[in-house]
Amino acid sequence: MEILAILIPVSLGLGAAGLIAFVWALRNRQFEDPKGDGERILSDRWDDHPPP
Amino acid sequence: MSDASYAPRLGVCPACDAAPLAQRLADRAEALAPNRLILSLPDAHCALCITQIEGALMAHPGVRAARVNLTLRRVTVNAPGLTAADLVPVLARAGHQAHELDPDALAQSAGDRAGRDLLMRIGVSGFAMMNIMILSVAVWSGAEAATRDLFHWISGAIALPTVVFAGQPFFASAWRSLKAGRLGMDVPISLALILASAISVFETAQSGHHAYFDAAVMLCFFLLVGRYLDHRTRAIARSAAAELTALEVPRATLISGVVERTVPVADLRPGDLIRVRPGGRIPADGTVLEGQSEIDRALLTGETLPVAAAPGMTLSAGEVNLTGPLVLRVTAAGQDSSLARLTALVEAAENARGRYTSLAERAARGYSPAVHVLAFGSFLGWLWATGDVRLAVNIAAAVLIITCPCALGLAVPAVATSASGRLFRRGLLIKDGTALERLAEVDTVVFDKTGTLTMGQPRLLDPDSIPADLRPLAHALAQGSAHPLSRALAQALEGTPPAVLEALTEHPGRGVSARWQGRDLRLGRAEWLGVADDQDAATLSSWLSVDGQPPLRLDFTDSLRPGAADCVARLLADGRRVILLSGDRAAPVAALAASLGITEWHAGIDPVGKADAVAAQADAGAKVLMVGDGLNDTAALARAHVSLSPASALDAARVASDMVLTGHDLAPVAEALVIARLATRRIRENFAISFGYNVVAVPFAILGMATPLLAALAMSVSSITVTLNALRLSGKAR
What sections of the protein cross the membrane (chain A) (predicted)? Predict the structure, then answer.
């Protein structure tokens, strides 16, 4: 059962990584316009720095 | 983006720039957000729309940046010095409808702190739930002694901070309702969260078999999802619909001595002299002192036929001056004007409508006491039977967890989200949370005529009735006037090149005259041309005379709103009563009713009469949906069981109504009724599902046979079933 000492921190670490990614996405306004972002890849206009 | 577009827009003379600038600064909204304009785009839906809209706006001089948000169907434009009135036509030329939204009101929702806060709590509780579940599965599969205790301790270390953080919305709301002396849904939720955490810590310390850390965190997660859906539906509706602002700002041109000044309408006093330009809205009640013109009263009375205005006549605020400039002496302004009296009527009607109790409130009212009684009853029962406090508290906590309204908390928001999402795609915005449920009960639909079933714009009935040799003359004459009938005539004759006329003069209140190859031409009212007209005709008419020929009658009709015929036909086919109430003359109303197949119609009704007619229907037991756009409909809109207005409606009408139609088409109205019924059925089904799970699981809990595994299963399966059932609604349109 010593393996638990490794496995449990690993599972918590992976979960925390997911949580941090979610918080980052939230702060970076990734959920502002999901539908528009999906459609924009079809547009051929160069849009390197999209305005907020 | 090229650098050239950053150049400030410069007018020809400084004064030309300064005058509108001063006017803009006077406007509070513009002064606060001088650069940002937000337009609503009801029919944008694809990548091509984004490219076209952004391209058209960027090509317009003065626009620095334009960004479409397709999810919210709006475009944010950074254009210093431009107003929505400049940009709406630009988009119209690109083939897209647009309406102005108030950036101030949207600023609150753009930052939407409450929504992000909820999302953050969902994320944290979701993370905690996943990790605790991994540990719980091990315990359920038979971890023993020290391993189980270790897993429980780790679970607790994750769960306790999570419950403290993610449970805050529930604790706060429960505390508020307790202080107000009520038992809301959040009281049993908070109780379950606190009790489950406390019991679990105690059991873990005693090295017990059952800990409910997973249940407590799962409870938080599912309930927060429901809370978030509810919040989002409301936020979208509030930000978009409530703040669709009217394009015209209430201002008046005051004549003091020889100088004319632009002042806010609120500053007008009785006795002031004001000038109203052709095409302008009359800002206050008054008597005409100088000038001849025609007045469009459609928004106040529903009449499509303009009324002639001459010195001595009394005009009301809200009417539109059509052809000639007028000077008015103000008789009543602000609080005393007829516009303000109508607003007061709306307030009275809103009070009369009373408060609607939603399905969720009714469910909570019965549910919340029942849960407390059950939990407390099983605590007392087990205490009396065994005398074991620890066991009794354990069982009471299990009952609270099992009965906790996870599915109930999701039942309504999930349905509301998918239903309003589907209606939004069809071009209907829901402003009020309970509007969907009220819409489902509707059995009678009352329509206004002008501006609702019709577009409020006249159209030449039969262009072929004009002889070919007169067409260039008629076109040229019609171009000389801003009168709606002239504009309709010019539009109908667009294909004919206009003749070159001499001495083209507009006679306000009468018509237009000109000379052509030595002959007198006249286009205008029958009396002016000296012919007798049929006053009871269903159509509007204008006459065209050419010297030496008998005058020619031109018939105009109000063009039908697209989808109106379809909408009425579907409502009638579904067995709903359809009533037409109009302030217009009997003949056109009868003609329209006949063409749409409406048998119940009333003409010549004033605003009070409309509200009374709606109230009479309500008293007779009918649930009325009122569809209207004008000031004369406002009181009736507020009085009806549920109300709807097109986006082209006046500000006051949109504020008074529960739903706003964002497109031109009226067809979504009939569909909305169907979707609303479906939604209410789904809500009831969801209540039945979550109630069913409780009926099965609660006996286990009361009998002391509930395990954390059973609690977790009941909770997650019922929540997922309820959500899936709600999602069936948003699926493919039939």
Answer: 6-26
Read off the CATH number of the domain in which B306 is found: 2.70.150.10
Q: Is the pLDDT of residue A48 over 80?
A: no
Q: Is B78 touching A (CB cutoff 8 A)? A: yes
Question: Nearest C-alpha of chain A: how many angstroms from B46?
Answer: 6
Same domain as B582, residue B444: yes
**Rounded mean pLDDT, B147-174:** 89
Residues of A in Cβ contact (< 8 Å) with B127: 15-16, 18-19, 22
Q: Does B124 touch chain A (CB under 8 A)?
A: yes
pLDDT tens digits, one per residue of B424-481: 778 787 777 778 888 888 889 998 887 788 887 778 877 777 887 888 888 888 877 7
User: Do the beta carbons of residue B644 and residue B669 sit within 8 Å?
Assistant: yes
pLDDT for B292 equals: 81
The domain in which residue B88 lies consists of 3-101
Instruction: Answer yes or no: is A49 within a domain.
Output: no
Contact A36 B68 (CB under 8 A): yes
Cβ burial, residue B515 (10 Å; 0-12/13-18/19+)? middle
State the average pLDDT for chain B. 78
pLDDT tens profile B563-582: 888 889 998 998 888 998 88
Catalytic status, residue B448: yes
Q: Scan residues 1-52 of A and list those with Cβ closer than 8 Å to B.
A: 1, 4, 8, 11-12, 15-16, 18-19, 22-23, 26, 31-36, 39-43, 45, 50-52
Q: Residue A17's closest chain B neighbor by CA?
A: B127
Domain containing A7 equals 1-42
B46 to chain A, any CB pair closer than 8 A? The answer is yes
pTM of the model: 0.69
> CA B175, CA B138: separation in Å to the nearest integer?
36
Beta bridge partners of B459: B557
Helix (H) or strand (E) holding B76: strand B74-78
The residue out of B505, B538, B571 marking a domain boundary is B538
List B149, B432, B448, B584, catalytic entry: B448
Same domain, B631 and B531: no
Answer yes or no: is B719 within a domain: no
B443 and B586 within one domain: yes
C-alpha to C-alpha distances, B45 to A14, B67, B401, nearest whole angstrom: 38, 14, 44
Q: Do both B451 and B600 map to the same domain?
A: yes
Domains in chain B: how many in total?
Answer: 4
Whether A52 maps to a domain, the answer reads no
Q: Distance from A12 to chain B by nearest Cα, in Å?
A: 7
Q: CA geometry: angle at A12 spanning A7 and A18, to 5°? A: 130
Is B44 domain-assigned? yes
Residue B404 lies in a domain: no
Cβ–Cβ of B67/A51 closer than 8 Å? yes
